[in-house]
Amino acid sequence: MIKKITLSFFLICFFSNIQAQMKELSDERKMELSKQSNDTVSTAIGKLVLPTPYHSESIRKESKVIGWGDKKPQAPNGFTVEKFADGFEHPRWTYIAPNNDIFVVESNTQKSANRITVLRDNDGDALPDEREIFLEGLNQPFGMLILNGFFYVANTDGLYRYPYKEGQLKLESKGEKILDLPAGGYNNHWTRNLIANEDGSKIYVSVGSASNVGEYGMETEVRRANILEINPDGTGEKIYAAGLRNPVGMDWNPVTGELWTAVNERDKIGNNLVPDYITSVEEDGWYGWPYSYYGDIKDPRWEEDPHNHLVQKAIVPDVPVGPHTASLGLKFYTANQFPEKYKNGAFVGQHGSWNRADFSGYKIVFVPFEDGEPGIPEDFLTGFIASEANSEVYGRPVAVSILPDGSLLVNDDDSNTIWRVSAQ
């Protein structure tokens, strides 16, 4: 217990009082770094060779979403892809309730709809029959949770809970803010996700960093780049794990019981640095951001103030899933509709790159697991890139969730569509 208190207290005090010493490097220093030897680390799925920082120029390549028309994403042989629902305004995230109602957050970085829509399948055909606006007037909502007679919503600036009865299609009561959260953030780091433990005694809240690599001062990063643990009433906050630049998707490994998360790593040091990852999350674990990555590989932008004591304790994440992929969604497959190879494996939603000369991400990746241990990631749902040359994409996948019949839902937030993938 002392260890838990010490970690949270240390990190809050540390980030509150230190002035950032992150420095933008000269072109000459970047050239020197680019000529050094590659780094090799051991991950849970094998050796990973990482290029040197500034091995290539940092490129900004934004995608233009053109919509699907009569096209649709492509799944492996033996699967069918169909449109589940459309007509949303950025359907960023989906939560399947215990009674199988489907809650969809409509939220965005700019011009956010700030609402939750509920879908209901009445006849068991895995398609929605009812659709209602469940809750409006929110502030960049993202994570949702039903627990102990309450509906929880994680807005970007705070966690709210509302009295809830199973089957409600609209919330009329006023919510109670039970936890303040630091708002704002670099790119899409406004998202706050939620998950409860098995017995409902704790809630975990993911909070991304306010910056790329601490350039705004570490005093702005208090309670950020963390997964927080709280009691269901918002009390008892502690930092469960830290140094996670932008943790978003969270789920429980169905075999080991470990908490896993999908994390966006840092930008602007080359096309292939730093790979995003999914990883098991150790309680009181430190994962390096912003001072190092993949364990003790030091970020050169902090070389004048390297924080060696933290670098030395940094944990190597388990599964790299590609650089700049914006891996956001994470869901373990515990249903039975898909072939056996998918059982207890993880689906990862990759929103897609903006800081890479060639697009990466823009797909759903599957990570097979055996006896609770991860294997090599493989493509599952592709076809989102329309034209690399013209920087055009049909859509951008985010959340992944599992319907009661075992089919997979994929939120394509920039095409305002949710896709359903089923086994034939």
TrEMBL record:
Keywords: Signal. This is L-sorbosone dehydrogenase. Residues 74-271, 314-422 form the Pyrroloquinoline quinone-dependent pyranose dehydrogenase beta-propeller domain. Pfam families: TrAA12. Gene3D superfamilies: TolB, C-terminal domain. Residues 1-20 form the signal peptide. The keyword Signal applies.
